[in-house]
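Thread amino acids onto this structure.
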């Protein structure tokens, strides 16, 4: 099972960077989302691929025509939060208000229920498992926020599954589609999205996908934009992760969707034998 997803945000929605942390600062930056998104959508249609798009509520508010275009082209839409704030830096009330606003912004454009959520930076971890209670309260059916490995932002290394699972929380049950990993010398290796996809040579990615029963991809429009401005104040390692491989990434992506058939979350939900899936109490 190979699932294709995108996190729809602008190139400057960089986490843990002071100059872009405040929504009020965003209008001073160049907007690049329109052209970057159009290129992705055209490539998907050309290759007859389905996908799920996790959109920021801010994107829905600022660029409503883009969210409508995603919907009208037949792609499903989930929420990626409203203002791209790390979930573990929010209180329960802040998280709830941001989530509700993001859902409203998207549903007002599509007239369709938002069923899926992915936290910015996969920022659900051992410290804020209450997020699942809040998602259930807002009728989110499937979460895609678990990154079952070490990560600068979030990372839920102790999560006992890198396959679809059911999370049991105080509010009830919610389905989880985590990022997939590949075990190498007792370490969980990520390869199917973001900077990991840009870093690894394509033949290695293809081989890892061929060996994996479950693949959850995650891409951003900025992952394929070699001409985006460089935020020079970023730490050196962070800068490397943000900009490595941009010149060849879209070619790799087109190779990927030419070599493999992907499904969206709706189709994955139908195919997964949830009755046999692990139930994880948190």
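Threaded sequence (282 positions):
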């Amino acid at each position: 099972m190979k699932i294709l997803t995108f996190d729809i945000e602008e190139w400057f929605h960089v986490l843990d960077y002071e100059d872009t942390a405040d929504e009020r600062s965003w209008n001073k930056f160049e907007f690049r989302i329109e052209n970057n998104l159009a290129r992705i959508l055209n490539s998907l249609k050309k290759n007859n691929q389905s996908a799920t798009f996790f959109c920021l509520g801010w994107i829905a508010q600022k660029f409503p025509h883009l969210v409508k275009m995603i919907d009208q082209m037949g792609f499903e839409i989930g929420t990626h939060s409203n203002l791209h704030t790390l979930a573990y830096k929010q209180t329960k009330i802040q998280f709830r208000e941001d989530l509700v606003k993001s859902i409203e912004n998207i549903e007002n454009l599509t007239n369709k229920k938002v069923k899926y959520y992915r936290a910015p930076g996969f920022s659900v971890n051992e410290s804020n498992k209450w997020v699942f209670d809040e998602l259930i309260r807002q009728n989110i059916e499937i979460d895609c926020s678990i990154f079952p490995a070490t990560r600068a932002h979030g990372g839920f290394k102790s999560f006992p599954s890198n396959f679809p699972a059911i999370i049991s929380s105080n509010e009830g049950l919610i389905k989880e589609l985590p990022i997939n990993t590949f075990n190498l010398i007792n370490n969980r290796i990520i390869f199917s999205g973001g900077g990991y996809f840009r870093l690894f040579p394509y033949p290695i990615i293809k081989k890892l996908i061929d060996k994996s029963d479950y693949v959850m991809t995650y891409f951003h429009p900025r992952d394929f934009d070699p001409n985006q401005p460089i935020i020079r104040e970023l730490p050196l390692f962070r800068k490397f992760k943000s900009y490595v491989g941009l010149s060849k990434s879209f070619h790799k992506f087109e190779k990927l969707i030419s070599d493999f058939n992907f499904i969206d979350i709706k189709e994955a939900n139908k195919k997964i034998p949830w009755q046999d899936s692990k139930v994880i109490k948190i």
